[in-house]
Amino acid sequence: MKVFGIAGHSGMGKTTLLERLIPELTARGLVVSLVKHSHKNVDIDRPGKDSFRLRESGCKEVLLLGNHRWALMHELRGAEEPPLAALLDRMQHCDLVLVEGFKDGDFPKLEVWRRDVGKPTLWPDWPGIVALASDAPATSVDVPVLGLSDIAPIAEFVMAHAATR
Known about the structure:
two-stranded antiparallel ribbon; Rossmann fold; 9 strands; single chain; alpha/beta; 4 helices; 7-stranded mixed β-sheet; about 25% helix
């Protein structure tokens, strides 16, 4: 399994890039998974539903299975968030795991940067940023700058620079 991160300030277009990148990578024959870290409360369950009630009753984990997908909900109950490595250990085999978040993680990352958003680049302050994907030329950076609208070179870069885990 290989790991590669997508980084950037909120509103830069990370999800939009991933929506285009994932089909490009899967068209090349890769099995792709994703880990997304959120600073917000994550709840895929709904109050009143059986799975919600059973989880609230004290279960550490609840696995919800439907006709088209399943989801495993793990309650931290005050424990620290697990490190990325522990989450990757729980994932099924795939060729590539794309990671959004985990800014301190020890894996290569592509920063999505749009000049019009008006925020500075995360590079060089975030560890592991090996390139920028931008809609404008970035000046004074010592990493490759890829065109944000041209997904094929971005996919090739990700495939070439993903870290083996």
